[in-house]
Amino acid sequence: MSDNSASVDTPSLVSPSVYPSFFGDGTPLKLGVMASGNGSNFEAVAEAIAQQQLNAQIQVLIYNNPGAKAAARAEKCGVPAILLNHRDFNSREELDQKIVETLQQYQVEWVIMAGWMRVVTQVLVDAFPDRIINIHPSLLPSFKGINAVEQALNTGVKITGCTVHLVSVEVDSGKILLQAAVPILPDDTLETLHARIQVQEHKILPQAIAICQRSHFLGTGEEVASQC
Ligand code: GRF
User: Fold this and answer.
1) Do residues 146 and 100 make contact, with C-beta atoms less than 8 angstroms apart?
2) Distance CA 139, CA 91 (A)
3) What is the pTM of this model?
């Protein structure tokens, strides 16, 4: 259904999920996804839901770049795709306020930043305390910020990977939920390495949402921070 499986997989190490087999049998968790570009992680989450690996539903996709492929993927899945172009707002806070209003309008419970390439503010974090997660293409705390894959290649490390973490205002710094390690091969380019990292991203992002879902049904989002 997608280009998600086009990349070669390689041996990798995924950090253990605290609740590997949890599938909430109650009301599906209401997700809002934020994406800026391709949207392969959006599709991985949608696919996990369709395969009944994740008891959730995507209420809305928010995207900030006109023409982002993520929007087309959402429309294909029947998910409303709302463009909030950051260029139309005077400040990060103004954009985040509109994002919050949109997420609330769609009754979102947990927010998934799946390739959202904007720095978020306290406005968004305060509206969904401990209920926003992000996927980042490195083994945090190494290689924060943009160009994480390039940073890993240029630094000469032999293993990198991806991380799903809770979002705080400080970029790429919240509580880590899951990680997957990916070896860097001698002939790797930015493209080949990123493609293999994305294979792992598409696995651990739905798993991390399942962890959040369990904490959601147990109580508050704060529990996820203490249990992982
Ligand atoms: C991913 O590599 C993610 O880690 C980073 O942005 C990329 C988004 O990819 N934050 P996609 O748009 O989901 O394909």
Assistant:
1) no
2) 30
3) 0.90
Contacts of residues 128-131 at CB distance under 8 Å and 24 or more positions apart, as own/partner, are 128/100, 128/103, 128/221, 129/221, 129/222, 130/166, 130/220, 130/221, 130/222, 130/224, 130/225, 131/212, 131/216, 131/221
pLDDT tens per residue across span 43-56: 999 999 999 989 99
Is residue 140 within 8 A of residue 59, CB to CB? The reply is no
Note the Cα 201 to chain centre separation in Å. Answer: 8
Assess whether the C-beta atom of 114 lies below 6 angstroms from ligand 1. yes
The one-letter amino acid code at 41 reads N
Separation of CA 159 from chain center: 21
Pocket test for ligand 1, best of 43, 163, 198, 199 (most atoms within 8 A of CB): 198
Closest CA to 155 of 115, 193, 116: 193
CB 59 within 8 A of CB 30: yes
